């Protein structure tokens, strides 16, 4: 079972409408519909809130959706790479600034 099917099944098991879930999570009903149709995934905060609302573990909520698990891993890896690249630029900029100032002092 994938995440979207699991979200819909759990909502129906607890007799909630999409509007009920939307109000509890402070999101639009359309967002809940997109989650259940597989058009997009809820963010981590909403996944945690949903697991608490349904009294199940977060693992149980997302278990079985391999594509979603891979997407989270890829997003986390991308975020780490972007952060690492940003910090790598600071020493390079500092060295360039020092080099330029040394060259300008000699003229």
From TrEMBL:
PROSITE patterns the UniProt entry points to? HTH_CROC1
Span-the-membrane segments of this chain are: 86-104
SMART domains, per database record: HTH_XRE
Q: Which GO terms describe its molecular function?
A: DNA binding
Against CDD domains, the record matches this protein to: HTH_XRE (cd00093)
Top-rank taxon of the source lineage equals Bacteria
- InterPro entries assigned to the protein according to its UniProt record, in alphabetical order: Cro/C1-type_HTH, Lambda_DNA-bd_dom_sf
Q: Does the keyword DNA-binding apply?
A: yes
> Does the record bear Zinc in its keywords?
no
Any Pfam family the entry gives: HTH_3
The segment(s) forming the HTH cro/C1-type domain are: 7-61
* UniProt keyword annotations, A-Z: DNA-binding, Membrane, Transmembrane, Transmembrane helix
Q: Which PANTHER family match?
A: HELIX-TURN-HELIX DOMAIN PROTEIN, TRACRIPTIONAL REGULATORY PROTEIN-RELATED-RELATED
> What is the protein's name according to its record?
XRE family transcriptional regulator
């Amino acid at each position: 079972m994938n995440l979207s099917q699991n979200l819909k099944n759990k909502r129906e098991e607890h007799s909630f409408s999409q509007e009920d879930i939307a109000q509890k999570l402070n999101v639009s009903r359309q967002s809940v519909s997109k989650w259940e149709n597989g058009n997009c995934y809820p963010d981590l905060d909403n996944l945690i809130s949903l697991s608490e609302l349904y009294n199940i573990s977060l693992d149980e909520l997302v278990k079985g959706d391999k594509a979603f698990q891979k997407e989270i891993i890829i997003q986390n890896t991308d975020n780490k790479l972007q952060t690492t690249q940003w910090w790598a630029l600071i020493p390079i900029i500092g060295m360039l600034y020092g080099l330029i100032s040394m060259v300008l002092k000699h003229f």
